[in-house]
PRC-barrel domain-containing protein
Amino acid sequence: MGGTVQTDIDPRSLIGRKAYDRDGARIGTVDEVYLDDATGTPEWAAVRTGFFGRDAFVPLKPSALVGDTLRVPYERALIKDAPDLGVGRHLSPEQELRLYHHYRLDVPEDPPPPPERNPGPDAAEGSGP
């Protein structure tokens, strides 16, 4: 029995694992792992597929490690049709949004911006007692 991908797992340990879809059909081999910019946790895996030799991005959060394989809870056809974003470079927020929509995942909320320091009128430069 497997569990969802641990957020504290070493991403390098996923590289080279065989990936399978929800029906047990082989998708390919994990080629790269992409980390969340804010948390540093593994978020996406680029899986080298047999579909024209390209990499397909799959979400790691709903996926599970089963033995030495990665089980992705989506049909092979959906994975095959994932946006082709290329690999080897950072995913932009727009590219990530495309992936979230493709897999019908809830888009994570951005952390709120830090509060602006707004000194009161008494703290203006040059004013003093």
